[in-house]
């Protein structure tokens, strides 16, 4: 790769693509970003949790390393974005709760393993949980507190990133790219989510549907939790993420191709699971039901790496796109500049024998 290549096309305008474009422009690159609907897709429907520690599990060292590295970057990343609008943060910690004995044992396993990897989590008893979050259900047995696992408003994040791109000179082009060969820049970054395999055949990225509910506060309702609340209800993962005007409830997960219709069954499960975590949540206004398609890989890790002398891929972030935005931007800029970022080791596309080309 020529060290003098300073023009780059970013294909895909979700949080990952926008962040890469902004950082590349700030780093001196001349940047064009292509997307037929910038700031939409999975990024628009995200919950905004930044929870790599409390989602850790023995054997998933790479996921923990990459996620923790990105979480560490988020305070500075978010502060810098605050210059382009209001703060994107909505919570500064997370509480994962257990409703039965099996879940309580899982939380203990997570706490012990994550602590052995050098991170701090605190197991809480029922009384302490009631003290911290009195609106939660009385059936909760124990909890896992992760101080520093913040949450962000994904839509404020998208707005801030678009402003950051515009103010640093990124050319935002609202059209689809059908062939990377049509782009005339020195470098290309492919971050097109579920559309990525259409532009680089062989990338193991598939769509996984996720539904969320957005609830709005009303006068006199029980206050929302002050932190992200996560739990497992009848084997289904559920979360409540505070927002300035209410709560986001998520999220279902279906292997259903490219279907983005919200289903009655999905809404029913989300409401039932939310009420198990917070019984008074029924007081809130239900003002949006939405579904997005997460770009998933077989091992649930993103694809970040070169597939040719000219093309870098940064895609397949699944349900962790918002969390992994800062570290992915840093890793992609390193690749564009001819180096690499050790924190994302293990996310290289060649782990799936993705075909490389010289161009």
Structure description:
With 359 residues, the chain is an alpha/beta fold. Helix content is 28%, strand content 26%. The chain is built from eight helices and 14 strands. It is globular, with a radius of gyration of 20 Å. The termini are close together. The model has no long low-confidence stretch (mean pLDDT 95).
Describe the secondary structure blueprint for this structure.
Elements: E1 7-11, H1 15-26, E2 30-34, H2 61-81, E3 89-98, H3 101-116, E4 122-125, H4 126-132, E5 142-152, H5 154-167, E6 171-173, E7 187-190, H6 196-199, E8 206-216, E9 228-233, E10 236-243, E11 246-250, H7 264-277, E12 285-296, E13 303-306, E14 311-315, H8 325-336
Parallel strand pairs: 1-2, 1-7, 2-6, 3-9, 7-14
Antiparallel strand pairs: 3-5, 4-5, 8-11, 8-12, 9-10, 10-11, 13-14
Helix pairs in contact: 1-5, 1-8, 2-8
Biggest sheet, spatial arrangement of strands: 4-5-3-9-10-11-8-12
Briefly note the structural class of the backbone.
Answer: alpha/beta
Alpha-carbon Rg, integer: 20 Å
- Residues in helix, %: 25-40%
Strand content: 25-35%
Notable features of this structure?
359 residues, alpha/beta, six-stranded mixed beta sheet, 14 strands
Quick summary of this structure?
By secondary structure, the chain is α/β, with parallel strands linked by helices. 28% of the residues lie in helices and 26% in strands.
